């Protein structure tokens, strides 16, 4: 176990339940973590309130204050860099990030996405899985690269689509899995078992050829 805490910055636009799961993982000692910043593009994001309650520094940057998306992204990443995180976690950050702004972070930034990537990059993943008649659905945690939802996939949690499922029931069943998957991946990074070398994931010193799977409460190869 490394002797130092992994410094984490989080970006979230919405209710922040995945951030809450990370907070819980720190609280129960699952991971040696320190949250250095929680940032959002939305002043009313639930994650900000959770961070304030936990005494974690927060940042709100409103995209409407910037002429170009690129200007916003560079300003945001400059502020994040100032907090010196080891890892940046996108936990429901609902913006596409400029490729030049994010490139310096490749290998140090992960995202949770509600589909079994490479299926269903982008939005409306539950609806698209249902419309395609898929028998299973899930969530993925991946390293972020300039390709939207296209970076190397670290780990996935899957569930069976039941007859009668709709977008809401699927989302509701998937969310608790997301809340286990994301902290489990962060724990691997915090314990230095996982890293990205060029576009290859290294897990326990070996090339990871397919994503880890969340199975019965643990990540397995
Ligand atoms: C999650 O479904 C996550 O997979 C997606 O956005 C949602 C965020 O939910 N990227 P929350 O804000 O963490 O509750």
Write the layout of secondary structure elements.
Elements: E1 6-11, H1 17-27, E2 33-40, H2 46-53, E3 58-60, H3 69-82, E4 87-90, H4 99-102, E5 109-113, H5 125-131, E6 136-143, E7 153-160, H6 167-190, E8 194-197, E9 200-203, E10 206-207, E11 212-215, E12 218-220
Parallel strand pairs: 1-2, 1-4, 2-3, 4-5, 7-11
Antiparallel strand pairs: 5-6, 6-7, 8-9, 9-10, 11-12
The protein binds 5-O-phosphono-beta-D-ribofuranosylamine.
The site of 5-O-phosphono-beta-D-ribofuranosylamine has 13 residues, from α1 and β5.
Quote the CATH topology.
Answer: Rossmann fold
Cα-based radius of gyration, to the nearest Å: 17 Å
Which structural class best describes the helix and strand composition? Answer: alpha/beta
Q: Give the proportion of residues in helices.
A: 25-40%
Number of helices: 6
Q: Average pLDDT, to the nearest integer?
A: 96
CATH architectural type:
3-Layer(aba) Sandwich
Largest sheet: 9 strands, mixed
**Strand adjacency order, main sheet:** 3-2-1-4-5-6-7-11-12
Poorly predicted ranges: none
Oligomer: single chain
List the ions, cofactors and other small molecules found in this model. Answer: 5-O-phosphono-beta-D-ribofuranosylamine
Strand percent estimate:
25-35%
Strand tally is: 12
How many individual domains? 1
Tertiary shape: globular
CATH class: Alpha Beta
Helices and strands, in N-to-C order? EHEHEHEHEHEEHEEEEE
CA(first)-CA(last) distance: 20 Å
């Amino acid at each position: 176990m490394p002797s130092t805490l992994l410094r984490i910055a989080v970006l979230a636009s919405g209710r922040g339940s995945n951030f809450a799961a990370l907070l819980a993982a720190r609280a129960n000692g699952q991971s040696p973590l320190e949250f250095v910043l929680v940032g959002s593009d939305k002043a009313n994001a639930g994650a900000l309130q959770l961070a304030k309650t936990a005494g974690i520094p927060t940042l709100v940057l409103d995209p409407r204050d910037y002429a170009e998306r690129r200007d916003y992204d560079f300003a945001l990443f400059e502020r994040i860099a100032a907090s010196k995180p080891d890892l940046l976690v996108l936990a429901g950050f609902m913006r596409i990030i400029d490729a030049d702004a994010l490139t310096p972070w490749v290998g140090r930034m992960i995202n949770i996405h509600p589909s079994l990537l490479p299926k269903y990059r982008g939005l409306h993943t539950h609806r698209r899985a249902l419309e395609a008649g898929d028998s299973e659905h899930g969530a993925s945690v991946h390293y972020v690269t300039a390709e939207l939802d296209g970076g190397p996939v670290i780990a996935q949690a899957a569930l069976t689509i039941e007859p009668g499922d709709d977008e809401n029931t699927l989302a509701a069943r998937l969310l608790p899995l997301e809340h286990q998957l994301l902290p489990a991946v962060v724990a691997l990074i915090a314990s230095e078992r996982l890293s990205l070398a060029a576009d290859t994931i290294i897990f326990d010193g070996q090339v990871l050829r397919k994503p880890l799977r969340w199975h019965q409460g643990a990540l397995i190869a």
